[in-house]
Write a structure and sequence with these properties.
InterPro entries: Kinase-like_dom_sf, PRK1-6/SRF4-like. The chain is mainly alpha-helical and 120 residues long. The chain has six helices and two strands, in the order αββααααα. The longest helix is centred in the last third of the chain and has 14 residues.
Length: 120
């Protein structure tokens, strides 16, 4: 299973952003460049493309941006009773799936179990 791709798709669903989207739906903030250098646990740097949505959401959580600024407004309209903690939990699952170091990413079984718990 490609857990990284699943995480990207989950972030796209949560944010309402596609791969080519560059600006926040609620702010004028734009994404940064198309790639980044990461360091794995062995200390070696590797250059890899990181999807824009992944970087934008990570930056949003690092900056303690309100979840309402990151979540797709259509999701909130269609499911207004959806608790904020469930949305945040889904973001955390997606971010875990998109960790730069593949060894830190959860297994798909763990992801499925986590998502089951989000809904219950």
């Amino acid at each position: 299973w490609d857990v990284f791709s699943f995480g990207v798709i989950l972030l796209e669903l949560l944010t309402g952003r596609g791969p080519a989207d560059h600006a926040s739906p609620s702010t004028s903030a734009s994404f940064s460049g198309p790639s980044t250098t990461t360091t794995d646990r062995s200390g070696s740097a590797e250059h890899e493309a990181v999807p824009e949505a992944v970087r934008w959401v990570r930056r949003g959580f690092e900056d303690a941006r309100p979840v309402a600024e990151m979540v797709d407004p259509a999701l909130l309209r269609e499911a207004p009773a959806l608790p904020k903690k469930e949305i945040v939990a889904a973001f955390h699952v997606a971010l875990a799936c998109t960790e730069a170091d593949p060894e830190l990413r959860p297994k798909m079984k763990t992801v499925a179990d986590s998502l089951d718990k989000v809904g219950s």
